[in-house]
UniProtKB/TrEMBL annotation:
Protein name: Protein translocase subunit SecD
Domain Protein translocase subunit SecDF P1: 54-108
The family this protein is said to belong to: Belongs to the SecD/SecF family. SecD subfamily.
Gene of this entry: secD
Stored InterPro entries: SecD, SecD/SecF_arch_bac, SecD/SecF_CS, SecD_1st, SecD_SecF_C, SecD_SecF_C_bact, SecDF_P1_head
């Protein structure tokens, strides 16, 4: 009854929540994915060090882990990082690769962007379209020919002016105007800054200098003072929906020094704005309503969706990248193994299941039918869980994960064998099928729990220590271990218990326990004979 309610609840979630698609998400090796190449940009145009690239790779992989087992890949290719994510959505790869350099700066003045009014009728240039997502990559397309975002290879006659030199020149030029301490230059920068164009200063602004920056939606230009707090002072970041304000927010908790600085700033600047800048763009610029006590959380507000708020919190939680990157156009990656491998894996699993069922039917007779029913119900539950995990935490099922599920079939069968053998042990001691079931279960459940505990610990250790697809294998192995316990306790044992009370199932020709009962009778006869002989010897 309980198991049936669990399965019904799972499939209600599958068919009536989210996108309502009853198919699990597949990994890169089975369905292909989207690849984005991140080209490192240093302020002086020098070549990035391998240590910086490795650190950036580790941070991005940590961000991937923070989103769940998503099956993404992050590899170093020369001076670039290549991020591949399952499916055809390139926004996830771009989000994972954002520099995420957060600074909190006081707002000195603000103005409507010079191109904000012209933004609406430009139906053919959807550069600021991702504004509701509030990402530091609002557009990867160049707004004007001057600042190249997707920089093509320089002409051959400009070999000295490499891409790195051009990037360094663009950053230096942007700093001269947008980070000038001259008020006249600052006002000129505010009037001429194109918020629709790609930002050469992205993630490379100097926190000790003022900054002229756009809002993420490109409608407002801000003149900001030097940074008072940087992202290294963030202790934790979470996303939540504020039901009172009806908006998604990102809540920040600062470390001790950052918390003290923020408390002092808010106390001295009530009624003024403070801008949260991420990669040289203003994510939020709220008005300080009152002093924030040291140790209290602070919220970043904006036009966030639930997904974008979660992505921003995840990015800030695991730290900023040591380098800023320029993302290339997304490209489609074909499946490395393909559907043929998926079909082969499913066939292998089906063959394994059939062999297990045949063994149980031959050796345990009709008790094997209970085994089959338990395995089928276990598979029904596993499928629903795979769909829901893909929908809500981004879990993708790859070939390694399928291997973990197949191994789980054998582990579940092991639990049945342990249970049935304990019943047979009780029957050998002379008990009936009905009385052997509860006694056998009392002995078997301890063994089943111990065995599954060892398997789960092994899967957990493997998940923590492994990387890449091995983590998917460990995840599904641990999941099937937990489901094995649920199925044995909520399905197999109740069915066997009901069968023991049935006259039909108690027949030796049906339950396959006739040979064991014969052994019990022979032992009983032998014991009686020994008792009789002993009694006669005493009389003599």
């Amino acid at each position: 009854m309980i198991f049936g309610l669990i399965v019904a609840a799972l499939y209600a979630l599958v068919f009536f929540t989210g996108d309502k698609s009853p198919t699990p998400k597949l990994g890169i090796d089975l369905q292909g994915g989207t690849r984005v190449t991140l080209t490192a940009r240093t302020p002086d145009g020098s070549k990035p060090s391998q240590d910086s690239l490795r650190r950036a790779q580790e941070i991005i992989e940590t961000r991937v882990n923070g989103l769940g087992v998503s099956g993404s890949e992050v590899v170093i290719d020369g001076d670039n990082l290549v991020i591949t994510v399952p499916g055809d959505d390139s926004s996830q790869a771009r989000t994972l690769g954002q520099t995420a350099r957060l600074y909190i700066r006081p707002v000195q003045s603000s103005a409507v962007s010079s191109n904000a009014k012209a933004q609406a009728p430009q139906a053919e240039t959807p550069a600021p379209a991702p504004a509701p997502q509030n990402r530091p990559f609002p557009a990867q397309e160049p707004g004007t020919p001057a600042p190249p975002s997707e920089t093509p290879a320089p002409p051959a006659d400009q070999g000295a002016a490499s891409t790195e030199d051009q990037a360094a020149a663009e950053i230096a030029e942007a700093k001269k105007t947008r980070q000038s301490t001259d008020p006249a230059v600052q006002q000129q920068a505010m009037a001429t800054l194109d918020c629709n164009a790609s930002d050469p200063l992205q993630g490379n602004d100097d926190p000790a200098l003022p900054l002229v920056a756009c809002s993420t939606d490109g409608t407002t230009v801000y003149l900001l003072g030097p940074s008072i707090i940087d992202g290294q002072e963030i202790a934790d970041a979470t996303s939540a929906f504020n039901s009172q304000q009806s908006r998604n927010e990102v809540s920040l908790t600062f470390k001790s020094s950052g918390s003290t600085t923020w408390a002092q700033f808010t106390a001295a600047n009530i009624g003024k704005q403070a801008a949260f800048t991420l990669d040289s763009k203003v994510v939020s610029a709220p008005v300080v309503q009152g002093a924030t006590p040291a140790g209290s959380a602070t919220s970043i507000t904006g036009d966030f969706t639930s997904a974008s708020a979660k992505e921003l919190a995840n990015t800030l939680k695991y730290g900023s990248l040591p380098l800023s990157f320029q993302a290339s156009e997304a490209e489609t990656v074909s499946a490395t193994l393909g559907l043929a491998s998926l079909e082969a894996g499913l066939i292998a699993g089906a063959i394994g299941l059939v062999l297990v069922l045949l063994y149980c039917l031959i050796y345990y007779r009709m008790l094997g039918v209970l085994t089959a029913l338990s395995l089928v119900l276990s598979g029904v539950m596993v499928y629903a869980i795979m769909v829901l995990l893909g929908r809500y935490i981004g879990f993708t099922l790859d070939l390694a994960g399928i291997a973990g599920l197949i191994i789980g079939i054998g582990m579940t069968a092991d639990s049945f064998v342990v249970y049935f053998e304990r019943i047979k042990d009780e029957i050998r001691e002379g008990r009936s099928f009905r009385s052997a079931v509860p006694r056998g279960w009392a002995r078997a459940k301890r063994t089943i729990l111990s065995g599954n505990a060892v398997s789960f610990i092994a899967a957990a250790v493997l998940y923590v220590l492994a990387v890449g697809q091995v983590r998917g294998f460990a995840f599904t192995l641990g999941l099937t271990t937990i489901l094995d316990v649920i199925v044995v306790f909520l399905v197999t044992h109740p069915l066997v218990h009901l069968a023991s009370k049935s006259d039909f199932w108690s027949k030796p020709s049906i339950n396959g326990l006739g040979a064991v009962q014969q052994v019990a009778r022979e032992r009983k006869t032998a014991a009686s004979a020994r008792t009789s002989v002993g009694a006669q010897a005493k009389e003599a």
